[in-house]
Amino acid sequence: MWQRYKYHVLMHLIIFLWGFTGILGKLIHKDALHIVWYRVLIAFIALAIFLFFAGKSVRLSAKVLPKVFGVGIIVALHWISFYYAIQLSTASLAILCLSTTTLHVAWLEPLVMKKKISLRQIIMGLVVISGISFVSVDFNGQELLALFIGLLSALCAAVFSVFNAKLSEQTPAEQLTFYEMLAAFTLVSIVLLSLGKLNASDLSLTLNDFYWLLFLGIVCTSFAFLATIVIVRKLGAFTVSLNINLEPIYTILLAIVLLNEHKSLSINFYWGAAIIILVLLLNGLIRHFELRNSNSEIG
């Protein structure tokens, strides 16, 4: 029985870890830029060690490299905006905004992949907007800014997801991520240097922050990425993408238990969250039945 369900268990462990990254934005006492700088640096080093011991090449076509670096910059912008949204408001709000990534992918993917835009996706997107309006009805200026930045983070996540899918058709995912982490690290380093924050004082860490950053970079980023490759191969991309919609539920529950965020969230937030999560799950189920019917017809 374990052999049958072990990849499902591993998948939910990975989703749980992704959900925990939002909590780390509150637990690590550094600003968003420094959190991302350490995250991509640690992930890059961990991936380099993995590729070396796995005997995998890091060579990349000169034609593809600029595109990969472009995606890496989008990854950096996604994480920076994600952690800024957390620090301006709550982990629950940031991860709820991030859950709209799937719907951004729905309209962005047809543009990049030259496919037809789905009317259903447009309608569901409008329903999600109504959910966002529920979430934001009691917000003040700072929380509205956090909402805007969180939605920007989701858009960045959708952009790199779609372009990564296109790039991975010709390039191994391990190499893509290796160079994307390098690009993200380069961008954040330049920004920190220009702000005068790339110095020993600003980069200093407490022991607690150091351990959490190691956990974030190695476990939540490098390990989660490599494990996801295996899971997708075993369970299929659709099963994984459907279950990823549970990430905001994990994060909100963790935020309630670890950060007591339920004390600062109104009932409108939970109504809005329920609308958004239900739409995402419904969208995934509809796609599941469409895919199953399509496979039946082919069979």
Structure, explained:
The chain is an all-alpha fold and 299 residues long. It has one domain (17-298). It is 82% helix and 0% strand. The protein has 13 helices and no strands. The protein has helices at 2-27, 32-53, 65-88, 91-98, 101-113, 119-136, 141-167, 173-194, 200-203, 207-235, 237-244, 247-259, 267-298. α3 (65-88) packs antiparallel against α7 (141-167). The longest helix is centred in the C-terminal third of the chain and has 32 residues, at 267-298. The protein is globular and about 45 Å long. The protein starts with a helix and ends with a helix. The mean pLDDT is 82.
Indicate the proportion of strand residues. Answer: under 5%
Order of helices and strands: HHHHHHHHHHHHH
How much helix, percentage-wise, in residues?
over 70%
Number of E strands = 0
Give Rg in angstroms: 19 Å
What is the number of independent domains? 1
Q: Quote the distance from N terminus to C terminus.
A: 28 Å
Q: Which structural class is indicated by helix and strand composition?
A: mainly alpha
Summarize the main sheet. Answer: none
- Tally of DSSP helical segments: 13
Q: Could you name the ranges where pLDDT drops below 50 across 5 or more consecutive residues? A: none
Mean pLDDT: 82
Spatial shape: globular
Quick structural overview:
The protein contains 13 helices and no strands.
Key words describing this protein structure:
13 helices
Q: Topology, please?
A:
Layout: H1 2-27, H2 32-53, H3 65-88, H4 91-98, H5 101-113, H6 119-136, H7 141-167, H8 173-194, H9 200-203, H10 207-235, H11 237-244, H12 247-259, H13 267-298
